[in-house]
Request: fold
Amino acid sequence: MTATIAIGSYSDTDKAALISSFDPVFIAGPADLATLDETTRAGITTVAFKGHAPFDGAVMDLLPKLGLIANFGVGYDAIDVVAASARGIKVTNTPDVLNDDVADIAVGMLLMQLREMEKASAWARSGSWKDKGEYRLNRKASGAKAGIVGLGRIGREIANRLAAFKMDIHYFARSEKDTPDWTYHADPVALAQEVDYLVVALVGGPDTENFVTKEMLAALGPRGILVNISRGSTVDEAALLDALEQGTLGGAGLDVFRNEPHIDPRFYALENVVIQPHQGSGTVETRAAMGQLQRDNVAAFLAGSALLTPVN
Reply:
C-alpha cells in the first residue's frame, strides 16, 4: 500500500515521475481526502501538494500518520504551517530554483508597461504603422528609481536586474539588509513616495494580507507603476482597481490576482495594466526543477534523511 498521496494538477511528466518513485494515490484537492476510505488514509505518511486550496488542520487530521507535506512552489500560504507544526508534521517547499524566472517576468512586465509593447505590437500587426505612421512615444525604463517590497531571494534577484538598468534601488524589508548601497525604508509608504516603480515580492499569507494599501498606491502616484509577482492577497485589489481607473496610479504589471483564475473583469477594461496568468515560474526548465525538488523531499522523508528545504 502506498504511503504517499499526490494532491493537485500535475503535468504528465511530473505525474509519471511521482508514479515511478512513490506510486501515490492522486486526488484533485485537499477536500477529496474525505472521499478516500479510512484504510487508505491511515497508511499515508507523506503528501506531495500542488495548488492553492486550503490545507488546514482539519484536513491534516484526516491523515493520522501524516509526517510531511511537500509543497510544489516556493509559496506555501495555502498550508497552515502552525497547525502542521502542532501535529508534528513537517512542511517543505521548492525555493531558489524559480528565482530567476520570477525575477525575469517581473522585469518583463515592467518593460511591457513602460514601453507599451502589447499595444505597439497590435499597432504594427493591425496595419496602423503602415497606414497611420509611427506609434506614439512611451516611457523610458532605464535610470529611474525602483522600489522592492520584500527583499528576499526573489526580491534581491529583481533588484539586481533593475540595477543593471541603471536604476537607483530602494527597498522595504522587516530589517535592513546587506546590499550594494541600496536605500532601506522602514516605512513602505515612504518607499512608495520615493520611487517611480514599485515591485511587490512578499510571501503570501495572513501576515501580508493587503500589505500594499490605498495609501501606498496614492504615494506611488499618477506616473507610478506597480508590479506584483507575489500573491494577489498582498495588494488591496479594490484600491488598486480604483486607482488604475481613476488615474491616480499610472499602471500595473500583474502576474497574480485575488480569486485567480477568476480575475475581476474590471482589469480587462483597463489599458494601463499588463496581465499575466500567474506564470512567473512557468518555464519547462524551472517546473522540472521544482518537481524534482518536491520529490527529493518526499524521498528524503521516506528514507529518514534530512529534508532538503524545510519550512518548519
Notes: The longest helix spans residues 284-303. DSSP finds twelve helices and twelve strands in the chain. The chain has two domains: 4-97+284-303, 99-275. The domain at 4-97+284-303 is CATH 3.40.50.720 (Rossmann fold).
